[in-house]
Design goal:
Chain lengths: ~290, ~290, ~290, ~290
């Protein structure tokens, strides 16, 4: 196998479409001796908006990470772009929120232990103590913040303080059964990833398997999306489905859905951590 | 290959669950020298309701079709069953309703020509003349009933008269873009099969691909269901999906969806024509 | 939800097809006051062979388990049937064989802890010590039998002795990288379940992902089957696939395949443990 | 919707990987006022080979098509590239080969009539007269060249003459049941698209459904690939699968497979016609 490069950079970039964007940006890298490892671009025609992801090898690149960002800023400004460059040695710092269902948490921790996720999982927050043993098994600190309607505002403040103290930049809701307040969500725009156990926009809200069972659908789904202030309405990152039949009881739906939730959330998390997702409006461009 | 039996009978049967149902019914057939070719049963536990489909060979059966029904009636009454027995020489008589999109109609006519559907396709009704040439190619009579809000009641009456005159018992809405009135629907309970171009219950109503495109889903679907008076709310027979990405324009969704609609409708029609679908409440038991 | 019956019986039955089989068998149960919970039958037409699975509630049944088997034996003999009746309080006793890859083992143990598998997992056997900690986490005894070409015969004898001592009746090869000898396999006919990491019969043998990568396929698969003396040729229980593209490296195939192996093996194990699989020749009837 | 550009160009390009490739090529276009509509690149790491597809709008481009190719040639030479530029007004000229099964031909002709394929379908060649009526319906000339072992060499020569006379550049084998000779195949390298009715490399050769049925697989597939001199071994463009069960007879496999063949071949043809497929060795890069 080819050895992995030691240090890479990944640019996510979007701006109004115009001629010469690829040329200018790839030239910027070429001039500085950057070797492009991966490049994806897309133009949303209705909105004439350009999206780009470039990953390059920093070996032999003539600029340091810091200098790279400084050098790129004027170019990005010229194109009125929204952009970020992340270097592979800047690992994301992730917090996972859970309630009582452990399957998504276990899946994430197991995959992380195999090296599938390029992040540090710094801590786990829950409104229940139930999954503490699972967290311990993987030696991840586990904090319990019980939530009632009365204490919610207060508890969220404590959670935010904890997250800031640990420089968390990515939050995964792994079947966290609380709705986060707008004050919380606005602190992490497009950085909170949720798994909803239905094929959105079907079966928004609570008990989607029950809703699906009662409607008599022949397929159930799961959807991973960024959290916004509209419940289950945020930009969708990934979805998948599984067939069911009249033979499946509600319990069977829950069991089959469990497998789906695990896989869909894991895929979305991986796409996010590899900087493959760009959000525009309420939609995503996913460069797989 | 094994030769197909000349004459078969198919019983669809549902009743409150109780002990001895399979024994009594299979004994009924055994006594009369019937050879069971296929048997499926299911009990919906919450409702304690029993569903059965039995298909048997009429060769060597000691009763004629007419006598079979007479002999079975008291047994069915004893169990307070909803039931039907159809013999393979009683081909269903089908009408297809279309508007301007020809892909579903073409798929149905082509499959019919290959012998996939055990029915006579008696006639095609449309509110537009556009698909007349396609109907002609397969030598099926094509009737045009233009519909406006003002003429709808009148035209539906004419359509119903035509259907009755031709002893139609099955209606397929192959992208028919009109909503049938309750007066029409009640004449054909669980006999009108529709294809909706979304993964119901997501994207009810018009322009589902546009709705899907704007929501930014990663999967689109199609749903075939029996028509009831609630728009797109009838019992679902079959669903399927196809993955999409940000690269797919609205036109691509329509193109990919076209393939899905064809297949999902064809599968639902086949299931219905083979007497594999039992309706209860707003759900179906599909014995595949 | 409906409460689960306390004690149930499941009959798996196959014999040359003839009239009256369902009637005779269902009558046998009805006479003894058995309530059928689930019934599936199938006839393989080319071979005129009949397959049946019936599950019934033992509550109110007039015979004890022992007496049930005695009473059923003459009926089965009359039809020259191959059959078994298992009662829900006779839990299967399972051994899992592993080498160094832990993902399948972890999946099985986790699902077992959730109650998805109706068996006791009695012990784990490996030719390597690597997965001992995982076994310990679930408190399952873990035995290491290192295998070399020279010691294989000897070691298999010890393994067999251990299995017999613990009354093992089901063996799962969860990525066990050794080929079992014919002497071993014949002790457990259709009781050893393997997972092969390809879409059989494509890519038999070792390194199937490498074979798939080099062939340039657009889909990879996994296959769970019963072990016979022909390598990767046993009766297939379950298969599934995942799409890949030119973007996927061999490492990506291995990663994506890992998810597939876990799910396919888990489904096959569940089907086997619920007595849903009947083998004939080199094929299976799977009553889902 | 955004209006489609009047004239576009598509470059397919591959060469040994090196720094600056994207920059140099995108700069070439930018200098000449080309607006990039779509760009995809990929590097096969093991072979250090670079693959690129760029599609750009020729409106405002400063060079004519002819001049574009002249200007690009030195650049391509410098990189030792394999390449082609095709302009959207140079429609491919396609011949379809068939035997007696009409489903793939009908699918292709129907999709072509909807505008899904950017090609002229110039003629149809068959070794049997059966599908002449279908060809007539779409007004495509249909030529019959009966093939026997004795006449094969002779007939292929006549076919080749016909193809050359009509400037055919793309050949689709839509269930053509003859193996083309090496002399034939070498005239159209990576320009002959075949559909094989199995999940290659499983079930090479004749009667794959029968092979699949006898092996007892739970999934059947279809594979579209470029034809080479190794039977069913050419570079794979597209594959897909459908689930089957013990309930499916060989006839059912053939019926379900028919749907699959149609879709898989249609997808592969579309990918080829849109210049989305690059071949290297026996594999493909498919820029979807």
């Amino acid at each position: 196998m080819t050895p992995k490069p030691e240090l890479t950079a990944t640019l996510l970039f979007s701006c109004p479409d115009q001629k010469g964007l690829v040329s200018r940006i790839s030239h910027f890298l070429f001039e500085r001796n950057g070797n492009i490892l991966d490049l994806d671009e897309h133009v949303v025609q209705e909105e004439k908006r350009f999206f780009l992801r470039i990953c390059w090898d920093m070996k032999d690149f003539t600029l340091s990470p810091q200098a790279t960002i400084e050098a790129f800023t004027p170019l990005a400004k010229e194109f009125s772009a929204t952009w970020q460059i992340r270097f592979s040695n800047q690992r994301r710092r992730t917090a996972i929120f859970v309630s009582k269902h452990g399957h998504c948490l276990q899946e994430l921790l197991w995959r992380h232990s195999l090296g599938e996720f390029d992040t540090e999982i710094v801590l786990i927050i829950s409104n229940h103590p139930d999954l503490h043993p699972l967290a311990e098994r993987y030696s991840i600190p586990y904090y319990v913040f019980p939530i009632t309607p009365d204490t919610k505002v207060e508890q969220e403040k404590k959670e935010l303080a904890l997250l800031q103290q640990h420089n968390i930049d990515t939050i995964i809701l792994a079947r966290y059964m609380q709705v986060l307040s707008p004050q919380f969500v606005e602190k992490y725009p497009n950085q909170i990833i949720n798994i909803h156990h239905s094929f959105l926009p079907a079966f928004v809200g609570s008990n989607p398997y029950k809703q699906a069972y009662e409607r008599g659908v022949k397929i159930v789904g799961a959807t991973s999306h960024y959290v916004t202030n509209e419940l289950d309405e945020g930009p969708i990152i990934e979805q998948d489905i599984v067939r069911i039949s009249h033979r499946d009881s509600l319990d069977d739906l829950i069991r089959k859905g469990r497998d789906l939730e695990r896989l869909v959330l894991a895929r979305a998390v991986r796409l996010h951590l590899e900087d493959r997702v760009l959000v525009y409006g309420n939609k995503t461009v996913v460069f797989e």
